[in-house]
Amino acid sequence: RISKVMKLEAPDGNVYNIQVINDLNKIVLRSGWAAFASAYELKEHDLLVFRYIGDSHFKVLIFNPSGCEKEVFHIVMNHTPNLPEAGISHDRSFLKETRHRDCESRDNNSRKTKKMTPLYSPSLRSAEGVTSPEDTLNSGGLRETTKPRYVLAMGCNLTTVQKAEVNALVRKVRPAIPFYITAMNKTSMSGSLVICKDYAAKYLPDEDQFITLCHPHKSNIWIDNLKVITDGSRMLSVGWSCFVLHNELRESDICLFEVSKNDGEVTMVVHSLEGAHHLQGERARISKKAQISS
């Protein structure tokens, strides 16, 4: 369905005409591709996301190997007619379509309230690390099982304060898909995070897929390849490592993954709670202050 000329629209709004040929049922980009690659300084292992918008026209996002979007400044193309000559294109609607909500609008109450069942905090964890729902009695005296609002990874133990913070966040967000909650450890700090198979089988894609990671209070996004590993668990790697670095996560911090799906695209908004390191630091500060006072 692709014609002999493909249009690539770069993040700054410039459109490049690329000649293509079909080679063994694969589309090969020829004349014009070198100019595109040179203009945006593409390097080995850069990640490009192509979004087809019809009529052999694609919009392109460019990420570096760590999963962070490259900073692309507007490039003036005097030889191409009918293109903007200054400024940066802000048409990012195709990015927003991959998110269930705008990550920047978390605190201004712009989110529409969804009708959900009353909140019930899960209290039990199965052998696979998945929190079981609580049972409640209805008016007829029959037991009803309510949908859990969050799932704890095995080994993730919340303090009383953290539980209160989690419950408050659940009430605020009312997630359609239960939060996945895990504690940062040496493995997840070093660059890979595994999501348990029971949660993954129920709420995540059943094959490798690029997903979007974002912070609830920042506009940045990170792209990662969510991989299905041998036992059925899912793993985040390179993009997750970049997220950890840029958001200064530390060992024992608690991460809550808010998963949303839109037209097959998966977004994870990652909320974080300070872990034991913060409590130890606070205790040390108070102790030092007491010593100075004495």
Automatic annotation (TrEMBL):
Q: Name the domain of life this protein comes from.
A: Eukaryota
Q: Does the keyword Nucleotide-binding apply?
A: no
**Would you tell me the Gene Ontology cellular component terms?**
nucleus
Q: Where is this region: Disordered?
A: 97-118
The TF-B3 domain sits at: 1-66, 178-274
Record carries keyword Transmembrane: no
| Location(s) in or outside the cell | Nucleus
What keywords would UniProt list here? DNA-binding, Nucleus, Transcription, Transcription regulation
Q: What is its main location?
A: nucleus
Gene3D superfamilies per record: DNA-binding pseudobarrel domain
**From start to end residue, where is composition biased (Basic and acidic residues)?**
97-110
The terms under GO molecular function for this entry are:
DNA binding
Name of the molecule in the record: TF-B3 domain-containing protein
